[in-house]
Each structure stands twice: as structure tokens, then as C-alpha cells.
């Protein structure tokens, strides 16, 4: 549903991305084997909803722990149509996954940069929008947001059914403002919009 209104070029980039995932997945496990037949619904649409929810126009979007590129590469592909974000940075510590991300960027002609490093060691990214999917609990993500968000920036964190508990735990260590949107792809999941992160 979310990816219906995209250009022919964007559809072609997503198809090429899907082909590359299928080719590389047996070697480096980018997505679970069970989810491979449902790439468009399970991973592309799940990632694209973050683009739809972000406060555009966005200058710099950083995706932490990108793995096979979710949501970061989908954001970079959609940005080719909307010119927002202008720039995407993906942080991934695994060298083989980083090589995959760079291959997709090259073959689809995207404007995105991969940093092969730990999030904790990467120089502050000053991102206007920060995303991280299936990376860590919310309290840990707050530390990443404090380091890598520009002043006034927004973090978008997809979270599963435990999101209320994660907010309560994060509030014992961090001050922040959060807004909750229901996920469009999973009835139990939400997208947390987090701003104003500082230590409690
Ligand atoms: C469970 S995967 C999720 C990948 C992707 N975001 C997704 O939703 O499919 C987590 C990824 O984060 C990377 N990662 C975990 N801790 C990291 C860290 N401290 N710095 C950089 N990358 C990290 C792992 O190598 C892995 O590729």
C-alpha cells in the first residue's frame, strides 16, 4: 500500500535491491530466510513508512545498524523521487554487510554513504532524522540519539509490543519527548518519534 505511488525508477531500484538481497542472502544472512519471499511487504513497506512519517524536507538522515539496509537503503531509494532526505548515512559495523550496502548503492546509483564502524565510535553525525530498526532497547537507542542527532532533530524508532515498557525503562535514565504512531505493517508494532534527548 505504501509503495504504490512511487515512480517507475524507484520501482526498478527496489526490484534491483531485492535481486541483490536474494543473491547475497545465502552467504551473509541479510534477512531471515522465512521473510525472503515477502521482501516487499515485510521489509520494504515497513521501512518506507518511516519515510512517510518523517518531518520533510530532511537534509541529513542517518540509519544506525543498517544490516541489509532497513530502513536506510529504502529511505535513500525513496529520496530519489522526493529529494528528501538530501543525504543518507548508514552505520554498520559488520564489514561484509557494509560491502553489500555499498554494492546496492553503486548498482542503483544512490546518494548514500556507508560508515563501517561501531555507532559508539562514529564521530557525531549531526543527523536531522535518525532511525534504527531491530538494533537495541530504547534506553540504548537514547544514548545513540544523544550522540548523533542534530539539535532539534527527530529519532524514528520502530518498536514491537513491549514499547510501553521500553519507554518507562528509558525514562529512568533519559529525558525526552515521544510521540507514538501505529505501524502500518504490524498491528502490534509502533513507530516512536523521539525529540529533545538529554540525560535525566
Ligand atoms: C538485527 S540487525 C537489524 C538490521 C536492520 N536494521 C533491519 O532492520 O533489518 C542489527 C544490525 O546492527 C549492527 N550492529 C549492532 N550493533 C552495532 C553497533 N554497536 N554499531 C554498528 N552496528 C551495529 C549489526 O551488525 C546488524 O547488522
Automatic annotation (TrEMBL):
GO terms for molecular function: methyltransferase activity. Keywords: Cytoplasm, Methyltransferase, rRNA processing, S-adenosyl-L-methionine, Transferase. InterPro entries: rRNA_ssu_MeTfrase_G, SAM-dependent_MTases_sf. Specifically methylates the N7 position of guanine in position 527 of 16S rRNA. It is found in: Cytoplasm. NCBIfam families: rsmG_gidB (TIGR00138). The lineage of its organism: Bacteria, Pseudomonadati, Pseudomonadota, Alphaproteobacteria, Rhodobacterales. This is Ribosomal RNA small subunit methyltransferase G. Gene3D superfamilies: Vaccinia Virus protein VP39 (3.40.50.150). It holds the Pfam family GidB. Its EC number is 2.1.1.170. Its main location: cytoplasm. It comes from Roseovarius ramblicola. S-adenosyl-L-methionine binds at residues 65, 70, 119-120, 133. GO terms for biological process: methylation. It catalyses: guanosine(527) in 16S rRNA + S-adenosyl-L-methionine = N(7)-methylguanosine(527) in 16S rRNA + S-adenosyl-L-homocysteine. Belongs to the methyltransferase superfamily. RNA methyltransferase RsmG family. It is an enzyme of class 2 (transferase).
